[in-house]
Amino acid sequence: MTPRKAIAGTNLEQAKSHNRRVVIEAIRTNGALSRAAIARLTALSTQTISNIVEELEREELLRAQATLKGARGQPAVPYSINPDGGYSIGLQLDHQLAVGVITDLSGTVRARIERPVDRPTPAQAMPLLAAIAGDLMRKFRFDRNRLLGIGMAMPGPFDVEGMTSVGPTALPGWQDFPVAEELQRLTGIPVTVENDATAAAIGERLYGVARNLGSFVYLFIGTGLGAGLFLDGHLYKGSRHNAGEIGHTIVKPGGLECGCGKRGCLERYVSLRAAYECLKIPDPDHASPELLQALLANGDSLEAWVAQAIDPLRQAINMLELALDPETVVLGGFMPVGVIELLASRLDPLYLSVSSTSARTVPRVLVGAAGKDTSVLGAAALPIFSETNPQFDVLQKPHAG
């Protein structure tokens, strides 16, 4: 694994909130750290670190651990994230399932609820999601003053004519619907909404194989296909929060008809829906990913679909590598892990790209490790993401630590 780059902060007074995020991120990523260790990692002054740590400790976001004995002088006091310093609710809506979790500041799930749905409209889904949030708070008792907000993940693209509510991989009736505003009205809690692939990228970076990576692409294989983009230490969402909708990239001109109106789109070959149709699974609108896992476990062949999917998937990886030069491409989503591993095992040889270098220390493709709840965990992180992930903007200065 490549060595983690030092996170450089700034001593400008107006950058206080940025520096708080830098300190929290350093501790979240590396574990308990002394003030001196934080200063070395962040390139912030010792006084700045002392001020920030004292403030975060007063707010109960950090807590002091047992002291560490040094070679000389006073023993160093390490600081760690206080799990009970804050809580957030994550919600995820998909075609067949609504899932909710409460996580603490460390990301530990304190309660989880799921409810079946059937391609719900906003009128059907919004009361259900609000009820899940309420049930979660009754299931796990905590100081409501510590609730940071609700993060919600749902399939994209958002507000694109002819794509948002059309076809079997889209949810009907959501075009121009004010999701965050309506859910906040129903719950009284601030709400942040993100597409499921972007939320999954957050979840994989916080809890999975991308924990120490600064640039990666998360390919979310669900009913359709999308990509979450984590580049140079921050999420890239695009001008309308639709970056990564590569499922509608044409990989086979004149190929299978897509609900978006084009032919040969990537998600017509690489997605749960594509697998159900290729394998002639009855009632693909209500088929479950577990069906694919059961077929694999029983020794039934998925070869017809794998053979159809593998070259379009190679094309997608090649395009993403050439366009974005990520450290790796992570495969995950609602597709069962065993099936994803089967796909990954067939990818070689990958097409030549800028990632084709013997100097690399991370494989070009990794299978996600955060599991099927990756998106909802990422959604739960949305309300606190600005506190746990520094945004690498003009305030950041280069640091050759």
Could you give a short description of this structure?
This is ROK family protein. It holds the Pfam family ROK. 33% of the residues lie in helices and 17% in strands.
What does this protein look like?
Belongs to the ROK (NagC/XylR) family. This is ROK family protein. Pfam families: ROK. There is one protein chain. The protein is an alpha/beta fold and about 400 residues long. The chain contains twelve helices and twelve strands. The protein has helices at about 15-30, 35-40, 45-60, 120-140, 180-185, 195-205, 270-280, 290-295, 305-325, 335-345, 375-380, 385-390; strands spanning about 60-65, 80, 85-95, 95-105, 110-115, 145-155, 190-195, 215-220, 225-230, 235, 330-335, 365. The strands form three sheets. The protein has a five-stranded mixed β-sheet, with helices on both faces. It has a five-stranded mixed β-sheet with strand order 10-9-8-11-12, sandwiched between helices. Helix 5 links the parallel strand 6 and strand 7 (about 190-195). Helix 4 (about 120-140) crosses helix 5. The longest helix is centred in the last third of the chain and has 22 residues, at about 305-325. The radius of gyration is 22 Å and the shape is globular. Mean pLDDT is about 85; it is low at about 390-400.
